[in-house]
Amino acid sequence: MSPQTAVDLHTHSHHSDGSLSPADLVGHAARAGIGMLALTDHDTVAGVAEARGAARQFGIRLVPGVEISTTWRHQAIHVLGLWIDPACEPLANLLRGQAVRRRERMRRICGKLQRLGLPGDELLSAVESVPGLPTRSHLAAALVAGGHVKRAEDAFRKFLGAGKPGHVAAEWPPLAETVAAIRGAGGIASLAHPLRYRLSSGARGRLLEEFTASGGGALEVVTGANGAQEAGACAALARKFGLRGSIGSDFHHPQHAWNPLGRLAKLPAGIDPVWREPGP
């Protein structure tokens, strides 16, 4: 691949909490100058086939991917599976379990909202009517549409965030199990947005130790909305733990100005790109 080709290995379609169909996402990426794109919807690979077809049309190299929610020491962590085989049965089985967890969690959250005097049943129906797996972002949008809050951020601040009256803690599979499923599907496990988790520097180091020991192979060094200082910190972590570097916008919506496609910084010097072809 040409070093001039723009890369984005973290995007979402309407099969999770993005706004575009997989084909529209690929077209948007092509217009933004992206030459290599990963579709990494939350806990589903339902959009990969459509994205692959569109990628052939637009001349983009499509990386089949997924973003899996997992648990490390009671903390929710997101791991990207890149270059996976979407048809791999052990991975498919894990994702089926994720779908059950997500739907059950959404029912429990809406039940709590119902007891708070909100139309929980209507909100649940609204969330279940959209394509893809239910997420709290869908529920926040339904709360805005129903006039219960002004903005999605308010929904999390008032109802859905940790410690709020509508919050239900997620029960995701362990980190090691998730990494094993990605590797079993022929993929590379990449830790998504490593500075976003509420961890001390020591805890983040222990997370990366366990991630690497479990077979994790990469770290998202450059991610949407992060600046040079954050990228430098992530690069230092990648070097310390011997991880390859990834780039991803975490794109969800064209109207979100803070993580557009095609405007990501390059990997800092000394980081081995996760997309580099292996040598002989």
Features of the shown structure:
DNA polymerase, domain 1; 7-stranded mixed sheet; TIM Barrel; alpha/beta; 280 residues; 2 domains; 7 strands
Structure description:
The chain has helices at 22-31, 48-58, 89-115, 120-128, 136-145, 152-160, 175-184, 201-213, 228-241, and strands spanning 6-11, 34-39, 61-72, 75-82, 188-191, 218-223, 244-248. With 280 residues, the chain is of the alpha/beta class. The chain has two domains: 6-87 and 174-248, Metal-dependent hydrolases (TIM Barrel, Alpha-Beta Barrel), CATH 3.20.20.140; 95-160, DNA polymerase, domain 1 (Orthogonal Bundle). Helix 1 packs parallel to helix 2. The model has no long low-confidence stretch (mean pLDDT 93).
Secondary structure layout:
Layout: E1 6-11, H1 22-31, E2 34-39, H2 48-58, E3 61-72, E4 75-82, H3 89-115, H4 120-128, H5 136-145, H6 152-160, H7 175-184, E5 188-191, H8 201-213, E6 218-223, H9 228-241, E7 244-248
Parallel strand pairs: 1-2, 2-3, 5-6, 6-7
Antiparallel strand pairs: 3-4, 4-5
Helix pairs in contact: 1-2, 3-4, 4-5, 5-6
Major beta sheet, strand line-up: 1-2-3-4-5-6-7
Low-pLDDT stretches are none
Going by CATH, the homologous superfamily of the largest domain would be Metal-dependent hydrolases
Report the mean per-residue pLDDT as an integer: 93
* CATH architectural grouping of the largest domain: Alpha-Beta Barrel
The total tally of domains equals: 2
Distance between the termini: 16 Å
Principal-axis shape? globular
SSE arrangement, N to C: EHEHEEHHHHHEHEHE
Any idea of the CATH class of the largest domain? Alpha Beta
Care to count the β-strands? Answer: 7
How does the major sheet shape up? 7 strands, mixed
Can you count the helices?
9
Query: Which band does the percent of strand residues land in?
Result: 15-25%
CATH topology of the largest domain, which one?
TIM Barrel
- Pairing-aware structural class of the strands and helices? alpha/beta
Rg from Cα: 18 Å
Binned, the helix content reads 40-55%
